[in-house]
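anyone seen this seq b4? input:
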Amino acid sequence: MFGRPNSHSMSGQSSPSNSNSAWPDGRPDTIFFESAPGPAPVSMATYEQTGDLTEGSGHQRPLMALCIIPELQSRRREDYVRRAKRFAKEQSVKFIMHQMQEKHHRAQVQQVKRAQALLLLSRIYVGSIAADVTEEMLTAAFQTYGTVKACNMGFDNATRKHKGYAFVEFELAEAATLAIDGMNGYTIGGRNLKVSRPSNISNPNPVIDELVREGSLYSRVYVANVHPQLTEFELRSVFEAFGSLVSCKLEPDPTVPGVHCGFGFIEYSTPESAIEAISAMHGFDLGGQLLKVGRAITPPVVPVSAPPSALPAAAAEARRLVMRKLMMRAAPPRVLLLRNMVTPQDLDEDLESEVSAECAKFGSVQRVVILEQADSVRVFVEFEDSAGAEAACRAMAGRFFGGREVRADLYEQELWEAGDLTQ
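predicted toks r here
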């Protein structure tokens, strides 16, 4: 209970003699808690220390004791440093390979996106189709702009008649672009066709915009509906009247040797020549067939087929070999691969510095990567330029290192940049 002390009682009653000395509002001078009635408190026993005090795990040690660093013996110090250097090298190799794998993965994702964008650019929507028009008739009508891969009409399940629209997919995006310009409003079966891009192409599409922007850097012309008996030489002789040609290539028919597919690309040295050729030759009757000529909208190195993952195994392998050769031409190798230098058991920490010092005689060495495998050791030396790598390859091939004949080869730059060190 609440109360204040006085000389007569601890009952919590206020003394009349002290009422005048209280606070002006009548509150007590001192407020305290009074213990409830109960047993008397028990006094605590007092103990004296008779033995030594033992410090436990929770004892607070002096700060100076924590700062004392034990002295390393010479042998243990060398062992610590050797293990640390080996660990650092292993982590460095893992970091480099991880970076290369990430770069390769990003390149693959970008390649798939570009291939998907090309597939979108190669499809067109065809509406307002007459009831008696078939898929075969549509294919024949659009075939003059390029190879038609598929023509799919929408059919009504109840009546088994088409709904008046279709999607046409070409081999090339350029064929689809020309078909939209040339076939929109074209009359088949008494009705004017409505031809446009499918509505599922988002606008703007950054990947498509990038392809078109890269394609605009080249003065390339797409030519379709070429007579099957005309050759590249004859086609070149016609189009070179508008300016100097860089290349003239008709797409070969994969099923018939020596026969082209009726379309191809012509590249001029100047964009003005390409514009003049398109303006003059589009719709020109060459050998009884009207040429379809338009601006190439994609760069020459972009794949025009499905993504690599969707290709059959044999086609994927063939494409990989072709791309390797192209990359070798575009980017000369700057990496030297040394094999049969040491075994995994003989690998030591001095190999990297020895290889770097020896190869520095032939060019500027950027880094040395040592890949230890189960039964072999591969040493990769990256030079600043291809000349240093080639000179080192010629000098290192056939030399002996520790009684072993070294095998030296140039490593393909594409594989190195993709993080593939196993080829």
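The two ends are 91 Å apart (CA to CA). The chain is about 35% helix and 20% strand. kinda curious what u guys think
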